[in-house]
Design brief:
The chain contains nine helices and 15 strands. By secondary structure, it is an alpha/beta fold.
Length: 291
């Protein structure tokens, strides 16, 4: 069922206090085919029925993450874009962490350069995803529906409200943009550059404020709900879940999680996401509330 990395006494002191659980999507709640197993759905109903709130926290877009929150009838805020945007159930923005406005100057400079023609970028904002391209180059997990992906003639009006930048193109052009941002705003930004999974010469650069993570999103949600961090728990599978898991009162990692995350968490499930392993953690939380 579940492997515990802390003493039984310590676990029982923490678990009964849990009133809010933060849960990652990919590799945790969802199977590899983006479905929620019926066993997991049943465990969610049992846990939330005991009074514990379940909050989804993902690197995906708000629309994608919110879709699962609505499908599962959670009635709780949603943390998206790795904490850069947090919305309440009614769509109201609880927390938004804009990128430095000076980023627009860097983008304009690169756009005018020789290499600028080889890169496409999109701005993720609370109002939607803005791009000057009809079909912007985006990684699969950040692609959005027609209702949130908006083409505009200029991105300048949206620089001040952008919470995430995603650029795509050849390695040379994307790296040039990354270096330009680092020179001007390096200490204020978190930059992640990676190759497309297609194996082609396509690279992506994701940029968000340095102080933004799922932890900052969890802080905003707990403040909104009036729940102390010691009464919260989190479960995930990857390094972008690390800060969130260290922040909460009880942390859990999936069996399929990265070695670093598993080593740092209190609890590790013995089943993977494709086997519905997160249900074991939800049932454990629920049983503690019922006593």
């Amino acid at each position: 069922m579940i492997r515990l990395l802390e003493s039984t006494a310590t676990r029982r002191k923490r678990l009964p206090r849990v009133r809010c659980v933060f849960c990652d999507l990919d590799g945790t709640l969802l199977t590899g085919s983006n479905t929620v197993p019926e066993e997991v759905r049943t465990s969610i109903r049992s846990m939330t029925g005991s009074g514990v709130k379940l909050v989804l926290a993902s690197g995906r877009t708000d629309g994608f993450t919110r879709g699962y929150a609505e499908e599962l009838a959670l009635g709780t805020p949603v943390i998206s874009l790795n904490g850069a945007l947090v919305r309440d159930t009614d769509g109201r923005v609880l927390s938004s962490s804009p990128l430095p406005s000076a980023m627009g100057d860097v983008l304009d400079e690169v756009h005018r350069s020789i290499l600028g023609g080889g890169v496409s970028w999109s701005l993720f904002t609370p109002q939607g995803i803005f791009s000057m391209e009809e079909r912007p180059i985006l990684p699969r997990y950040l692609r959005a529906g027609e209702d949130t992906l908006l083409r505009v003639d200029s991105l300048e009006p949206y620089y001040r409200e952008a919470v995430t930048l995603c650029a795509g193109g050849s390695y040379q052009s994307v790296q040039r943009l990354s270096v330009s941002l680092a020179k001007r705003l390096g200490k204020r930004l978190m930059r992640v550059l990676y190759q497309s999974g297609s194996g082609t010469d396509r690279y992506y650069l994701e940029v968000r404020p340095r102080n933004v993570s799922k932890e900052s999103g969890a802080r905003a949600v707990l403040e909104h709900l009036g729940i102390p961090r010691t009464a919260s728990a989190a479960i995930g599978d990857y390094t972008n879940d690390m800060e969130m898991c260290k922040f909460v009162g009880v942390s859990a990692a999936m069996r399929n999680a990265s070695n670093e995350l598993r080593a740092s968490c209190d609890i590790v499930t013995t089943r993977s996401n494709d086997d519905g392993g997160v249900a074991d953690f939800f049932r454990l939380i629920g049983r503690q509330q019922y006593g």
